[in-house]
Design brief:
This protein has 638 residues and is of the alpha+beta class. The chain folds into three domains: 17-216, Histidine kinase-like ATPase, C-terminal domain (Heat Shock Protein 90); 221-381, Ribosomal Protein S5, domain 2; 400-530 and 598-632, Rossmann fold (3-Layer(aba) Sandwich). 36% of the residues lie in helices and 20% in strands. The protein is built from 19 helices and 21 strands. It has helices spanning 16-20, 23-26, 31-50, 88-94, 117-123, 181-194, 221-228, 279-298, 311-314, 342-362, 364-397, 425-434, 467-473, 499-515, 517-521, 548-560, 581-589, 604-615, 619-629, and strands spanning 56-62, 66-71, 125-134, 138-144, 147-156, 161-169, 199-204, 213-216, 240-246, 249-257, 264-269, 272-273, 318-325, 418-423, 440-445, 490-494, 525-528, 533-537, 540-545, 569-572, 596-598. The strands form four sheets. The protein has an eight-stranded mixed β-sheet with strand order 5-4-3-6-2-1-7-8. A hairpin with a 2-residue loop joins strand 9 (240-246) and strand 10 (249-257). The chain is flat. It starts with 15 loop residues before the first helix and ends in a 9-residue tail after the last helix.
Length: 638
């Protein structure tokens, strides 16, 4: 037995704990964790903007992936800290839970990691330099992996104020230290929308002749909704927006109805995206539902005998952004994805009810158009309920509840099971023969399936292409979806590497995103990568290449071994059906050799926008998207 006594009790001093367990502080050491460092420093600058002192934040990605964030706020305090007997700036960047966000009067509301942001970034950086000016000169202090390397000293005279933080993420900590410009673009755009008038610039100096990107929206949330609805057809021309404060809770809302069938509500607390919603979203939904029902009753659109309109029907086609600022936000879980403050529900509810009631009475034509859509949604929901009940009843009565084309696996533990959703009967047949029937199920699909972006839920249950998928997965759809009932924890989309295959994948992904969203959030969906090329030669084992780059590298490798290109027979696969069962198993289904790409949702806002562009009713945004991205297309319809 290993010895366990007082000598095994470790005391991690200073920022050692952060370096020992970085995931506890920034979530992970992957690319996502790397970008979290940037958000923490930028959030500190945004807090200055929330307090009314900062109007500009400049972010630069320098060569060698050095990151610089500069603002024109008040500047980090430079005086001697009364308790720590060190300059306040040193305390902020070297001691956990030190900052101006704990009731000292520095900030009324704030986001970030509640005072650990600057010190955590410092701990996880190879080096960091902070420059601050408070109107009495420009000062600098330097660090390496959380420890001071150059004490605070004055470097210039200036009357300006602000803070500049430059750091290099530690390659010993992170899986990658290469920043993804698009990831930062999406976050900075979001922050600029949420903070009306704040100007954020991003300049990627790793690129030659790169230009500065500017995010600056005087319209605030109105501009945000406008951006989200670019590819949608609005029902009302003007975006409804209001901003007010009640009981120390600042509430800002913007919304617009479109002809789409899904609802899109984005919520934020102190600039933090609450992807799981919370009490502020509950309050918004309640206020909206009551406002519409009260209006419908008052103007006799709903008769005395009629039931109230459901919130789900009222929200069909809505795009809304709900942003609140709370003094002491209580988040459920460490990831801050759901607001728990119970008092916020009532505040948001009363504000939304009041503002929306006034709007509806002042805009009767808009009110009528939205209510017409709501009543249509109610009829469709009732039809969907009947269709759903029919599916359930049929499943309960039939001896087998699974689709006829499904070749199920033997394993009953869902965590060990995977299902291949395969394009075409031919490939489906090969997959059934080639699979490991112990844990692999095969569901062949044929022909183009329903585009759910243009369809209400009532049309989905009885659709001959989607119904087998719903029944096979066994977890329901929409509000009835239950991840615990999922029959396979790996759902693998396997389609040809051509335009038709890409279209089928996109249709399925749209369906999962709109009606089985937890599958994507939970990482259950994968895309198979069948090879594009097979190289063969008598006396040599077949070699498979998954893209043109891999083909070129393989050919060079074989040439270095004395095998010329001319002596090789090369087959370019046009579809899965060209492979026999052994080849399909070896290249695409064998867990030891296959390549799977997990579908991950990095940015729900951008995903919603792209699905709307690619699969929605509005043609013009799709044409523009194709024109802008055509130059990046390779191997079209191979």
């Amino acid at each position: 037995m290993a010895k366990y006594d007082e000598n095994q009790i470790q005391v991690l001093e200073g920022l050692e704990a952060v370096r020992k367990r970085p995931g506890m502080y920034i979530g992970s050491v992957s690319e996502r964790g790397l970008h979290h460092l940037v958000y923490e420093i930028v959030d500190n600058s945004v807090d200055e903007a929330l307090a009314g002192y900062c109007t500009e934040i400049n972010v630069e990605i320098l060569p060698d992936n050095i990151l610089s964030v500069k603002d024109n706020g008040r500047g980090v305090p430079l005086g001697m800290h009364p308790k720590m007997h060190k300059p306040a700036i040193e305390v902020v960047y070297t001691i956990l839970h030190a900052g101006g966000k704990f009731g000292g009067g520095g900030y009324k509301v704030s986001g970030g990691l509640h005072g650990v942001g600057g010190s955590v970034v410092n701990a996880l950086s190879e080096w960091m330099e902070v420059e601050a000016s408070n109107g009495d000169g420009l000062y600098s202090i330097s660090f390496a992996r959380g420890k001071v390397t150059k004490p605070l000293h004055k470097i210039a005279d200036t009357k300006k104020t602000g803070t500049k933080v430059t750091f290099k993420a530690d390659a010993d900590i992170f899986e990658t230290t290469v920043y993804n410009k698009e990831t930062l673009v999406q976050r900075f755009r979001e922050i600029a929308f949420l903070n009306k008038g704040l100007k954020i610039t991003l300049w990627d100096k790793r690129e030659e002749n790169s230009e500065q990107l500017v995010f600056h929206y005087e319209g605030g949330l109105r501009s945000f909704v406008e951006y989200l609805n670019k590819s949608k057809e609005p029902i009302q021309k003007d975006i409804i927006d209001f901003e007010t404060e009640q009981n120390d809770v600042q509430v800002e809302v913007a919304l617009q109805y479109t002809t789409a069938y899904n609802e899109n509500i984005l919520s934020f607390v102190n600039n933090i995206h609450t992807v799981e919603g919370g009490t502020h979203v509950d309050g918004f939904k309640r206020g909206l539902t009551k406002a519409f029902n009260d209006y419908a009753r008052k103007f006799n659109i709903l008769k005395e005998k009629d039931s109230n309109l459901s919130g789900e029907d009222i929200r069909e086609g809505i795009t809304a952004v709900v942003s609140v600022r709370v003094l002491e936000p209580q988040f459920e879980g460490q990831t801050k994805t759901k607001l728990g403050n119970s008092e916020v529900t009532g505040v948001v509810n009363s504000i939304v009810l009041n503002k929306m009631s006034i709007f509806l009475e002042e805009n009767p034509q808009v009110a009528k158009a939205i209510l017409d859509k709501t009543l249509s949604a109610a009829r469709a929901r009732e039809a969907a309920r009947k269709a759903r009940e029919l599916v359930r009843r049929r499943s309960a009565l039939e001896s087998t509840t699974l689709p006829g084309k499904l070749a199920d696996c033997q394993e009953k533990d869902a965590s060990k099971c995977e299902i291949y959703i395969v394009e075409g009967d031919s490939a489906g047949g090969s997959a059934k023969q080639g699979r490991d029937r112990r844990f692999q199920a095969i569901l062949p699909l044929w022909g183009k399936m329903l585009n759910v972006e243009k369809t209400r839920a009532d049309k989905i249950y009885n659709n001959e292409k989607l119904s087998p998928v719903i029944i096979a997965l066994g977890a329901g759809i929409g509000n009835d979806f239950n991840l615990e009932k999922l029959r396979y924890h790996k759902i693998i989309l396997m389609a040809d590497a051509d335009v038709d295959g890409a279209h089928i994948r996109t249709l399925l992904l749209t369906f999962f995103f709109r009606y089985m969203r937890p599958l994507i959030d939970n990482g259950n969906v994968y895309i198979a990568q069948p090879p594009l090329f097979k190289l063969s030669k008598k006396g040599m084992e077949d070699v498979y290449c998954y893209n043109e780059q891999a083909l070129e590298e393989t050919l060079k490798d074989l040439e270095s071994k004395g095998i010329s290109r001319d002596s090789l027979s090369m087959q370019r696969y046009k579809g899965l059906g060209e492979m026999n069962s052994e080849q399909l198993w070896e290249t695409t289904m064998n867990p030891e050799t296959r390549i799977l790409v997990q579908v991950q949702l990095e940015d729900a806002v951008e995903a919603d926008r792209v699905f709307s562009i690619l699969m929605g009713e509005n043609v013009e945004p799709r044409r523009k998207f194709i024109e802008e991205n055509a130059k990046y297309v390779q191997n079209l319809d191979i």
